[in-house]
Amino acid sequence: MGITPLLVILASIFFSVYGLMHLYVARKILSQTDFSGAVNTGIIIFLVIMVISPVLCRVVAMRGMEGVTYISTLVSFLWMGIVFYVFLINVGVDFINVFGKLAHSTVFGGHPTAFIPEGYPTFFATLLIAIVVCTYAYFEASNIGVTKVTIQTKKLPEGVKEIVIAQISDLHLGVLVREKRLKKVAGILKEIEPDILFSTGDLVDANVDTIGELAEVFRGVNPRFGKYAVTGNHEFFAGIEKSVMFTRDAGFVLLRNECRNLDSLINIVGLDDPMAKRFKSRTGEDISGLLSRCDPALFTILLCHQPKKFRESAPLLPIDLQLSGHTHKGQLFPFNLVTHFFFPMQGGFFEVDGRKLYASRGTGTWGPPLRFLSPPEIVLIRLENVDAKSGILE
Description:
Layout: H1 3-32, H2 37-62, H3 66-108, H4 120-142, E1 145-153, E2 162-168, H5 179-192, E3 196-200, H6 215-219, E4 227-230, H7 233-238, H8 240-249, E5 253-254, E6 258-262, E7 266-270, H9 275-278, H10 287-292, E8 299-303, H11 310-313, E9 321-324, H12 336-342, E10 348-352, E11 355-359, E12 377-385
Parallel strand pairs: 1-12, 2-3, 3-4, 4-5, 7-8, 8-9, 9-11
Antiparallel strand pairs: 2-12, 6-7, 10-11
């Protein structure tokens, strides 16, 4: 499948679902209110515009209108979050209504009565709840926490007490995630002073042309053993050549199906995202060849954007720790239930047959600048040498 068919399919799925969601919300508004005909027409026009607003924002961006692009994209994606919760709450109300009517009819007989009142109270209540949830989610998205994980191992060299690793993932630098967010991330990284920094994909979003100056912010973060990154699916959506250039300008060593022995301390294996196959951009060796060249006596870390199939593959691969991201843990609860279906191991620390996985919730946001019950994080991992006799990492 080439690039054009793939994007057409993804866009068709998105706009089909998004359009049906708006149609459902429109029917609920019209059935629960008795606004005038002019007001109803205005509501319908507004909803149609919001369905196609992601395309309109892209058109504006292509014309180089950065200020207008930011404002229009912010409005478009904030609305995406609001309409998602309006839709979700109304589905819940409909379910309770149906259950209440059936229960009333079964127990009392006669004409069933709605369990939840219809009309203006329901309309304004669901809208208010959605706005409150999204307001909270907006501030949650800006509150980047540090998640601390300690892993003990006997595979660090003698005399090395510990290695401190920081992981960022799914920052999605682009129209909405820009200098303010990146400076906050850089400030946290400078404060925790890791020995190594890993970026596990989706460092950039779909507008790489507008973020070149942000690379300088990353260049100010200089762990003693360097910064390493792998591609995510959005590096390919944004244009892999430009994404690679930005990642390297930011000071990262980009591992595209490559293995590195880091100063005889640990092995680092970095895999391209599976999207590379779709875009016919796969490079380097497969994972079996890469791992065969790793020093088995050293702690081996696999950087792989997607945590998919870790449970099945972990026992078969000579790795000690896999670092992934991709899912955002749903980003907006309860969407994590959907992502869990495809990625059962998401948003946390997992262990299978001695192999460990940390799947990051992500450091930024994609789409709506909102997070609900899935706060952003920078992961701080301490590899502790249980056999270390003395000394610290020098």
